[in-house]
Design brief:
The complex is a heterotrimer of chains A (324), B (328) and C (501). By secondary structure, chain A is mostly helical. Chain A has 11 helices and 2 strands; from the N terminus they run H-H-H-H-H-E-H-H-H-E-H-H-H. Helices cover 75% and strands 0% of the residues of chain B. The longest helix of chain B has 35 residues. Classes of the chains: A mainly alpha (324), B mainly alpha (328), C alpha/beta (501).
Chain lengths: 324, 328, 501
């Protein structure tokens, strides 16, 4: 039996939004947006967002959230730099990754075992980490050791992104962990009744999101050249928007797909970059970001609902036909 | 009234009272111990005055948030709303010379307007409330930043300072206002049609709708009341500190963290105190805690914020203690 | 007076997807009488009642009350027309006091200035209790802290607030102890003496025959018989409820206990205080063990306790083949067991996901290959097999579960477990809310699985089903194990009822 091709707006929405935003700002900036330097710039900024998003999608698929992304970038980056300063440069990588995993595990533990809302938990962690980073940096800037600058190499970045995307697509779509996190987003009790240790799955999801936020931290500090007081601020919002603007449903579940993020991440970077090129101030950029977040979430929810209703109508039509 | 029913009711009430006394007793004992640990500073008259003034902000914002949250909306844009409204109020007074009416109109009206926007996003557009809160917070923060930076061209300062009309932030007034607001909030929440309907909607939406309560209307009106209380809190805080610094990148969330901790603490006492009293007790605990930290010389901006994060998690754990079911 | 008509139901239909919950229902309720609705679970009693109360809208047909057309849009609307209800869906608001609960949605009446006069509210509430001679319950503490029995009495008093002349009572007596049942019967008598009418739903048939003036029997959404209750015999009532098609044919036709000697699961002194206490039994290969009891006897809790979802469980469950003790839910799955909760939609299926995804979820552990690879080809094949083997009627594996009928949902729920190579399975009300055809299908599947040696624990609300299918029946009463009866000699209704009551 051959599968009929059916145009489903939900499937194509991330692509449409991406093209739309690229077109709007392409025209508004008179093509400046697509200049080779700027394209590279957009790619550079998308890398961190995309990588952190690849981790967050596990949490988002469960209908939970993790807004520690930016704070992990700051603390993992700073502690990594401090460790590198005191011993060899390569120690930066394990230090950062361990901090990421540990933070993720901690948030996951509180969310799963103590049943505290994930937004509250990660908000508190973010707050504490921001303060911790301020304490560490103490108005002094840490610089990434020269031996670690290879991370910012373009070829290395492109290869890493491809490898990471492939890896996450595999884990998220072709292993049972992915099936479980999406299932938890659909109906946590159903997954519990399948004998799955839901708490473990939750902790694993949060750990992955922490780990990939730490990887994003490495790329971020390599690009910026070091850490300071404000590094990674607003980053968590950017990751979340990359997911939601790409059409990953806020309530999680089966609609969570990695490809949506792959389009969502450059879309949000394009949006910000385009606004800056148009001469918008920081305030205006944030204003538009906020509005876009609201509209994107509303739109994906609205379309999903509408789609379901269309399905119901179709089912009823079918029934009527069958009755005749 | 049958005796059995009476006895059972009285028994429950006695247990509740016992719990209340124990909690208050423990707080007092801890305060007294800390009084001696800080070398007699904590309960000294000067510090008590500072303490009571500092208590008002988390209390007022907490009470406002209680009305907004009780209907099931977790709206965290309140910090950004307060910043935006506070700056509008200050500009009304300083630039337009509108005096006290301008201050009050700017602060309270500003918060009402903002809250209606973010509440509509979640009630009418079906956006999950925490996302709606984040999105609106971004928008409000941005507007405040834009206004302040536009003004800085003329005055040279990005911060709007309130120089006149600061009586509401001085000692007897600020306490008096907080006390009146608490009393009103208490009766409104526990004894009025709105409050009772709101509690019903918050804990059993289907039952209350079946009993003929208009769910959306109740949530919106409660959000309105909450916005007025937050607006009052903004007014007094602006009068007390003289400024609201515009922040971007979700910095406004930090401003409501103490209130959030107060609400969560209040909830963990839910069995013994009704919500408004819980917020009162919770905000007191949080205020005293930070006062003690300051007295011990713990620097703010770093260690205090880290403690606050830990406290919020701890309160969250206590508040959801023994909750069964699914938590996202 | 008894000849005047209070409420007339004319050709009322209601369907949920392809399932017809009410099919051309016609009823006449006279003033000053009590009409009982009898029928099995899923026969459409509660749907009919909730349509009259305005909790649900009917698809077509008409209600007439006092001769005028009556189309309640919501419970408040029904209340204005003098219709009130005590139904399961309409619970209480836990954190608010009983008095407030009783006048929820009527605060306007008690407004005193800006506030609400709670004292007057409580006074009026107790007046209501006194007027109908109901025993007082504490109304000044949060309603959530009341016992179920007290809560039901409060709900009854709440329903009487609006001074209704038509009252719907859905399963109210189940929660009541004997002395409060007597109170309820006295109340019903007093209520109808004033020329008012009651529509009553109860599972206790003896109670129904005793209390009701007329009984209407519903089956698959249709009224099959309406007569004065004195004209029914118990046997006849049951026969009408179950229907000829079901008896005999669908259940097992042998009358003997038959299973292999090998013990699969051994339960020793399983104890969850207040839910199910001191339960011990053995499940054999190829056995269907029924578990029966009144609705609050703890039979459903026993299921989830065995699976490991109840807190504070003591005692032991041992799977004999591998000698493993079951502690966590995962242990049961690993020892080739399964548990299907009674609440299919909340605990079993992912409603907004596709048929395919739902079918593979329990099997993804076994399907995972090297590097935890979950082959889409393998999962698709499994889903295809399961849906074909169980004749799931859907447009394809991509069909969203929410749009399936109850019966097809249950087929998906069952097939995804039975397609696995299981040793034992715990089924909690496997035929709840499914139509008669699917019911028969499920029974045939169970018979087949039994023949293959699957040990089945079937928790059931329906005595007929348990008697028709089980080898042995474990009867629970007040959370305790009362008896284990054998198909060979003990399967008479008297014996089972005696143990249950």
């Amino acid at each position: 039996m051959k599968k009929k091709f059916r145009f489903d707006i939900n499937t194509w929405l991330p692509v449409i939004i991406f093209v739309l935003i690229a077109a709007i700002f392409g025209i508004a900036t008179k093509g400046q947006l697509f200049g080779p330097t700027n394209m590279m710039n957009i790619f550079n900024q998308s890398v961190s967002v995309l990588i952190a998003g690849l981790g967050l999608i596990f949490v988002a698929a469960m209908g939970s959230t993790n807004i520690t992304g930016g704070a992990i970038v700051a603390v993992a980056g700073t502690l990594g730099c401090i460790a590198a300063e005191r011993s060899t440069g390569a120690i930066m990588i394990p230090v950062a990754l361990v901090i990421g995993i540990a933070t993720g595990c901690f948030s996951g533990l509180i969310v799963s075992k103590f049943k505290v809302n994930s937004f509250m938990v990660t908000l508190a962690v973010m707050m504490a980490f921001r303060a911790f980073n301020t304490l560490l940096v103490n108005d002094k800037a840490y610089i990434i050791p020269d031996s670690m600058r290879f991370i910012n190499n373009d070829v290395f970045k492109i290869v890493s992104v491809i490898v990471l995307v492939a890896l996450i697509v595999y884990v998220f779509h072709y292993t049972r962990l992915g099936t479980y996190v999406r299932g938890i987003g659909e109906n946590e009790m159903a997954i519990r009744h399948c004998g799955v240790d839901v708490d473990k799955v939750k902790i694993a999801a949060f750990a992955i999101s922490g780990l990939l936020a730490a990887v994003a931290a490495l790329f971020t500090i390599a690009r910026v050249g070091g850490t300071n007081n404000t590094i990674g601020s607003g980053f968590e919002m950017r990751i979340m928007m990359a997911l939601y603007i790409g059409g990953v449903p806020v309530r999680g579940g089966a609609g969570s797909k990695v490809y949506k993020l792959v389009f969502g991440a450059p879309t949000i970077v394009l949006l910000e970059n385009g606004l800056v090129l148009c001469g918008a101030s920081g305030g205006v950029t944030q204003l538009i970001r906020g509005i876009v977040l609201l509209v994107a979430v509303w739109l994906s929810g609205y379309l999903a609902k509408k789609f379901v209703n269309v399905g119901v109508a179709a089912a009823q039509n079918q029934k009527k036909v069958a009755a005749q | 009234m049958s005796d059995k029913a009476k006895v059972l009711g009285a028994d429950q009430k006695r247990k509740r009272l016992q719990g209340q006394l124990i909690i208050v007793g423990v707080i007092i004992v801890i305060c007294v111990i800390c009084h001696f640990c800080t070398g007699g500073k904590l309960l000294s008259p000067v510090n008590l005055k500072v303490l009571s003034i500092q208590w008002t902000y988390p209390l007022l914002i907490g009470l406002g948030m209680m009305f907004i949250f009780s209907g099931g909306m977790v709206d965290l844009s309140i910090g950004a709303q307060a910043i935006l409204a506070g700056n509008i109020g200050a500009i009304f007074v300083e630039d337009f010379g509108l005096g006290y009416p301008g201050l009050i109109l700017g602060c309270i009206g500003g918060v009402i307007l903002c809250e209606m926007v973010s509440a509509s996003c979640s009630v009418f557009f079906g956006i999950p409330s925490w996302v709606a809160g984040l999105g609106s917070a971004l928008v409000f923060e941005a507007i405040a930043t834009i206004i302040c930076s536009a003004r800085s061209g003329a005055t040279g300062s990005a911060v709007v300072y309130l120089k006149n009309c600061r009586v509401l932030g001085t000692f007897p007034w600020i306490i008096l206002i907080a006390a009146i607001v608490f009393a009103v909030a208490y009766f409104l929440f526990n004894r009025s049609k709105l409050g009772l309907n709101l509690q019903a909607v918050g804990s059993a939406p289907e039952v209350s709708e079946a009993m003929g309560i208009n769910r959306r209307k109740t949530i919106i009106i409660a959000a309105l009341v909450g916005a007025v209380i937050v607006g009052i809190g903004t007014t007094t805080q602006l009068s007390y500190t003289g400024r609201y610094t515009a922040m971007s990148g979700m910095g406004s969330l930090a401003g409501i963290f103490k209130s959030l901790a107060a609400i969560l603490t209040g909830q963990s006492f839910g069995k013994y105190f009704s919500n408004p009293v819980g917020v009162l007790v919770g905000s007191f605990i949080v205020t005293v805690l930070f006062n003690i930290l300051t007295l011990f010389g713990v620097p703010s901006g770093t260690y205090q914020e880290m403690t606050l994060g830990a406290v919020v998690i701890l309160c969250g754990i206590l508040a959801s203690w023994k909750i069964k079911g699914v938590v996202k | 007076m008894a000849d005047q008509i209070m409420l007339k139901v004319e050709n009322v239909c209601k369907s949920f997807g392809p399932t017809k919950a009410s099919n051309n229902v016609n009823l006449v309720l006279k003033k000053g009488t009590v009409l009982g609705l009898a029928g099995e679970n899923g026969s459409g009693k509660s749907t009919l009642a909730s349509m009259i109360c305005g909790m649900q809208r009917k698809d077509s047909g008409k209600f007439y009350k006092d001769g005028k057309e009556f189309d309640p849009k919501n419970p408040g609307d029904a209340k204005k027309h003098g219709v009130a209800m005590v139904v399961q869906e309409l619970g209480v608001v836990g954190p608010l006091t009983g008095a407030i609960n009783m006048f929820l949605g009527e605060m306007e009446k008690y407004k005193k200035g800006p506030l609400v006069d709670l004292k007057a509210m409580q006074r009026d509430a107790y007046k209501q209790f006194d007027q109908w001679n109901l025993p007082h319950v504490p109304l000044d503490i949060p309603a959530g802290e009341l016992q179920i029995e007290q809560r039901k009495l409060m709900e009854l008093a709440r329903a009487l607030n609006s001074n209704p002349d038509f009252l719907v009572l859905d399963e109210i007596s189940q929660a009541l102890s004997q002395d409060n049942r007597d109170v309820l019967y006295k109340f019903i008598k007093k209520f109808k003496e004033g020329g008012r009418t009651i529509l009553m739903i109860t599972h206790d048939l003896e109670e129904m025959v005793e209390i009701c003036d007329e009984i209407a029997v519903l089956r698959d959404g249709e009224v099959v018989e309406t007569r004065a209750s004195s004209e029914y015999s118990m046997e006849e009532l049951k026969r009408l409820m179950i229907g000829r098609e079901v008896s005999g044919d669908y259940y097992r036709d042998d009358q003997e206990e038959s299973y292999q000697k090998e013990v699969i699961l051994e339960v020793k002194d399983l104890n969850v205080p207040g839910k199910c206490e001191h339960i011990s039994f053995e499940l054999h290969k190829g056995e269907i063990l029924g578990i029966c009891g009144l609705s609050d006897a703890g039979i459903h809790e026993l299921g989830s306790a065995m699976f490991g979802l109840e807190e504070g469980r003591t005692g032991s469950l041992v799977v004999k083949s591998s000698n493993t003790e079951l502690k966590k839910p995962g242990d049961m799955i690993r020892t080739r067991g399964a548990y299907l909760s009674k609440d299919r939609d909340a605990h079993g299926l992912m409603l907004d996901d596709s048929v395919g995804d739902n079918l593979i979820v329990p099997s993804v552990r076994e399907l995972s290959g090297a590097l935890a690879f979950l082959s889409p080809i393998k999962t698709r094949r499994l889903a295809q097999e399961a849906s074909e083997a169980f004749e799931v009627k859907a447009s394809g594996l991509g069909h969203i579960i929410r749009r399936l009928s109850g019966g097809n949902k249950q087929k998906v729920n069952l097939s995804r477990w039975l397609i696995q190579d299981l040793d034992y399975i715990i089924l909690d009300c496997p035929t709840r809310g499914v139509d008669i055809g699917v019911k028969a299908y499920i029974y045939s599947v169970l018979k087949e699985a039994k023949a293959k040696g699957l040990g089945i624990i079937m928790i059931s609300d329906e005595l007929a089903e348990a008697m028709g299918m089980s080898d042995r029946i474990l009867v629970m009463k007040e959370h305790r194990q009362e008896a284990i009866l054998s198909r060979t000699c003990d399967f008479t209704e008297e014996k089972i009822m005696e143990a249950m009551l």
